[in-house]
Structures are given as structure tokens and as C-alpha cells.
Design goal:
The structure holds two protein chains of two kinds. By secondary structure, chain A is mainly alpha-helical. Helix content of chain A is about 75%, strand content about 0%. In chain A, helix 3 packs antiparallel against helix 8. The longest helix of chain A has about 35 residues. Classes of the chains: A mainly alpha, B mainly alpha. Chains A and B meet through helix 1, helix 3, helix 4, helix 5 and helix 6 of A and helix 1, helix 3, helix 4, helix 5 and helix 7 of B. Chain A: It is a multi-pass membrane protein.
Chain lengths: ~270, ~280
Amino acid sequence: MLNRRENPVPALLYKVFVYGFGTLCLIYLVAPIVIALMMSFTAGQTLKYPPEGFSLRWYEALLDPVRSGTEHIAAWNSLKIAGLAVLGSLLFAVPASIGMTRMKRKTVNSIEPLLLAPLVLPSLVYGLAALIVANFIGFQPSLWLTVTGHIVVFGPLMYRAASVVAQGLNPSLAEASTTMGASWFMTLRRVTLPLLMPGILAGAFLVFIQSLDNVTVSLFLADASTTVLPLRMFALIEESLDVRVAAISGILIAVTLLGLLVARRVLAPRPQN
Amino acid sequence: MKQSGFPYVVPMLLLSVVFFATPLAVLVGFSFITKGGVTLDHYARFFGDEFNFRVLINTARLGLETVIGTTLLGVPIALLYWHSGRTLRQVIIFLTLIPMLTSNVVRTFAWIVILGRQGPISEALMALGITGMPTSLMFTELGLVMAMCQIDLPLIILPLIAILTRTQYSLTEAAQVSGAGPWRILITLMLPLMLPGLLAGWILVFASTSSSFVTQAVIGGARNVYVPQLIYREVGTLFDWPLASAIAVVLLLSTGCLLVALTMISRHRRLNGHA
């Protein structure tokens, strides 16, 4: 037997690499969010880091309808568009995810790439294409055009989230329901949809968040009177680096965190390994 | 009797064909047409202009740099995940999801603060005595790559984590018992194991970088122009829609080719191991 006295240095270096460098990378990932949140509480006039003092003045400025009327309209537009995009993607993508489970694998493989294509193609290109076609037909940029664009681009997120769950469902559950005499609609309402709910909720969350944040599609399809929130923030950043952007960021981060915590509550209790 | 699933799929299929595939086809057609008929003129104008061509190269380079950066940052996080217990694993997933679900504009805004003259990087460089006066990384490619890497990092971490969650821990234990050191395990076992996840991540990162309009416009500034801003400028201020279409088709083709290539590599049998 060879005397295997191992050199401890590589093992130690590896530990430093994984635990030390790995943690640093995690900090790199999260620090910007923390910094954006900190900036929103600054008492100063500028975005100096570290922030000067603590105050809620920028949140007050943001909530004041006189000073921030444009932002309120933009936020309301964004919420409307995101809500309608979720509704639209529910109507189109959830049936598709159910249908796909009842089709041959080969057929699914040939249709699915078309449905998922909007997720990988640059949405800026899609925005331009949609604008050109709308212009041909004689449509002007509007709220409804933007909503349609968002459904096309983010519907696939709903499809993917719902079909992951749909594929895991036992088809005999729906069969059992129909053999017991339940109508097609009854089975859908009482068996299939409730079982799909975790996927649908996850999908709705993703579609809502993405739609709320979208710039590239809205850039081409929204008209001047339907300014959306991310475009308004973009303008605020470019024009004057207004500290109210920090307050908007703070609210958006809080909403995201809240959504994530709620999603964990709703989706987590599935004690399977 | 089994119902056919096809009627359920029809609405979304129609939506995709009418509202997605058709506009893209029209866009492609638009880029080839003038009053007289079919032409390559718009493409010739794009490639003939040295500035435009440099923008295309810049965009490809930015994508590549971001892919490399996210890989260098993502693999250590994946390894940390691999060596962690259940609770810590959940914390890592949570910390990855927060930035991913936070608005892109918000993340870009955070980087304006970080890279700016009064930001933490500038302050740190002054405190260390490396620079005598406040420095700004805004409007530089380095600053933009730093921001893009953080913004796209979740896109590479999540596929890696998905693979590692399915992998049995006994795999590395077996290698360890057989006498392999940690670095050897990393290079000959963990990295090949993670490769399909890396490929999936690279696709997402590259696709995201090549259309991240806001971050490029704000942090890149007027001096560093990338394809998305070029398209927007042609549409919004110069009203040259045919040229914008041609640029869009070039962007589509170049990302498309890369996606197909990476997808084909990831479908390769050897990568999927026992598949």
C-alpha cells in the first residue's frame, strides 16, 4: 500500500473557493437590490451612497397626487395591462396545457416550439413586427394593442408553468370523474382545474410580474396617453435621475418580496421529495 | 373513450400563428421590399455603414462577455448550493428569485447608484487610495458588463440548481472514496454534470442581453450603442422602418443561429449521459 498522506492545501483552497467565493457571488447578486432599497429612504437631494440620513420624504413625494400625477397614471396603466395580460394568458394557455397532455408526444414536440418561441426571441423585434402589421391594418398604438402584445409574449410563461403541473397529473382522475357521470364541464371545474391550480398561480404571478416590467413591447405598442410605469421610470432616469425613482423601486421590491412569500405559502406545501 | 386534446390547443395555436408568426414573417418581408420590388438594399445600407457594423460586433461582444461573467459567478453559487443543507439551499433559491423577479428598470437603477461618481465603488477606490478623485463607471463597457452579469445571473443559476437538485450526493462521495480530490471532482465530474444546465443558461443569458434595451441605453450611454437602441432610433426618430426591419432580422438571425447551435449541442446524446 502506498502511503497516502494527502496534501491538505488543495482541499482547503477548494473550501475557500466554494464557501468564500460562492458567498461573495451571492452578495453580488443581492446587493444591488438592497442598495436600491436603501436609497429610497435617503433624506438627501441626490443619489449619494451611503444615503444621507433616513426619511420617507421621497415616498411622500411619490404619493402626492400633485407632484406625481403622471406616475400614478403610468402605474394604473401598468396594472390594467398586467391584469388583462394575466386574464388573456389564462384563456389561451391553460386550455392548451390541458390539451397537450391528451396528445401524442410527437405532435406535442412539433407544436410546442411554436408556442414557446416568444420566450427566446428578442421581444424588441416582436414589438417592431407587431407595430408594422398594426400600422398596415390601420391600428394606432393603444392600450389594447399593448395588452395583445403582452399576451402573445408572456402567455407562453403561463403555458409552461401550467403544463409542468398538467404533465404530472394522473389522467385516470379525470377519467374516473367522467365515468362517474360528471359532465365535461363539471370534470374541468371540479377536478382538472383545482389540480392545475399551483401551476396556474405560478404562471399568473410570472405573467403579471413580467408584464408590469416590460419595456420593449410597450415601447412600440403603447401610445403617448398610455404611458406604462417602466417607461415612465426610464424617462425619469434619463431626464433628471429623480430620487422618486428610488421610492418607486422600493415599492416594486416590496411587492416582489410579498408576492414571493405568498407564492411560497401557496405553492410550497407539497411534501414530496 | 378518450377525448382528443387538439380542440383545447387551437386557441393558443391560432394566437401564435396570427399574432406572432405572421408579424415576424411580415417583418422579414418588409426588410426585402422597396417600391420597385424585392431588394437587398436595406441590408446593404446596414452592412455598408461602418458604424452599424461596429454596433453589431459590440452587441455580440457584450453578449459573450456577459455569458462568461455569469458563468464565472454562477458556477460557484451552484457549488455552494451543492454543498449546502436543505435550509441553506432554500435560502439560495430565494436569494436568486428576488433579483430575478425584481423589475429590470429597478435593477438598472441600482447599478446607476453603484457605478456613479458618488457610488460605493468610487468611494472604495478613493478610500483604498487607488484613485485620487471620484471615478464613474457609468457609460463604460466594463460598468455595463458588471450590471448585465448581475441582472442575468439568475438565468444561469436556476438551470444549474435544477440539475443539482436531481443529482444524488452519493455520486461525489463515490469519487471521493475512490481517492479523487475536490478539484478533480469539480473538473471531471461536477462541471460535465452541469454542462446541460450551463448551455440552457447561456441561451437565456445571450437572448436576454441582446434585447435588454433599458440597461444598455442607460448604463451604456450615448457612446456605447447596441443593436436594440439602433433599431429603436431608426423607428422612433429617423422613421426608417425598412432599415429597422433589416437590422431586426439580422439580430433575429444572429441570436437564432446561436440558439440553434447551443440547442443542438445540448441535445447531443453524450451530454445527457444515460438518456
